[in-house]
Amino acid sequence: MNRTLLAVGVVSLALGSLAASPAIAQRRRPARVAPARRAPPPPIEVPGALAPPASLNEGPDPFGEPPTPIAPPVLSGPPVPIVLPVALDVAVGVQLTHRALRWSDDIFGELRPYTLPLAPWITLDATWFPGAHGTDGWLAHLGLYAGVGFAVGISSSDSLGRTYDTAALDLRGGLRGRLPVGPHSLLVGAGVELRQFTLHPPDDPNDPGVPSVSYASATLDVDARLRLTPGLALLLGSSAALPFQLGDLADRLFPNVSGAAVELRGGVAWAIGSHLELRAVAAYRRFFLALNPSPGDRWVAGGLVDEFASLSLAVAFRR
């Protein structure tokens, strides 16, 4: 019995030694740790580089703060005023006019030439662009013009020294368009004009005297205003006229008369105030008429030239 107990104790001691031996005991494996992730490198900033455009569908970040709206830039300073073109141009002046009437191919030598020395006139001209009061668009350059002139205290005499009471009148009006070209402007007008020289005819029906004329014409005008300096401008212009009524010249002497007229003018304008200027303009107009006599007519001649030369001085209001 004692031997049996001794044997069991030896076996138990042997088994306990084997369990405690490091060569036989199992070692625990350490827990596997995940390697730490490296942070991405910071972006490289290039001086002067532009930021990438934001997406059109970009909205608030659901995991962060909403994007801060960027306010548009605020322009500082007073608003720039719109400079409107000239809307009204009114000129009042005095004019000296010389007239010379000459016949050509006067077969019988009965038609007398006529000359009017420098005669004083009073003139008034106005141009109005209604749209220029509130806009600088194309409507601001469509306008109207009108003018009147009349001679003061004149009488006429022919080559024989006969004197005639004389009245002279000039009326004109129509439409006008303006084309600005930088500081300059070009004006084109179309209208009608009535230029009358009324001389009382002689009582003798066989004396042609000096015929009265009444040139009612359709006109086309082209004018340019060229700015030389802030206070000085050059004025240039030309006109063409087609008479459709000639008065006593057609009614009493040559019923088949026809013709046309041209005019050239030039001058300068000086600014004498913020809205006032002084103008000096010289003009020359020439009517050239074909008389077209028929067989049996009392008076026979081939043509007529009626010339007007004038020099005017006016004060103009422009605004």
Which labels suit this protein?
11 strands, mainly beta, 319 residues, 11-stranded antiparallel beta sheet, Lipocalin
Description:
By secondary structure, the protein is mostly beta strands. The protein has one domain (88-318): Lipocalin (Beta Barrel). It contains two helices and eleven strands; from the N terminus they run H-E-E-E-E-E-E-E-E-H-E-E-E. The longest helix has 19 residues, at 2-20. The relative contact order is 0.13. The model is unreliable at 17-28 and 54-59 (pLDDT under 50).
Secondary structure elements and pairings:
Elements: H1 2-20, E1 88-104, E2 114-128, E3 142-151, E4 155-158, E5 163-181, E6 184-199, E7 213-229, E8 232-245, H2 248-253, E9 258-271, E10 276-290, E11 303-318
Antiparallel strand pairs: 1-2, 1-11, 2-3, 2-4, 3-5, 4-5, 5-6, 6-7, 7-8, 8-9, 9-10, 10-11
CATH architecture: Beta Barrel
Distance between the termini: 146 Å
* Name of the level-1 CATH class: Mainly Beta
Helix content: under 10%
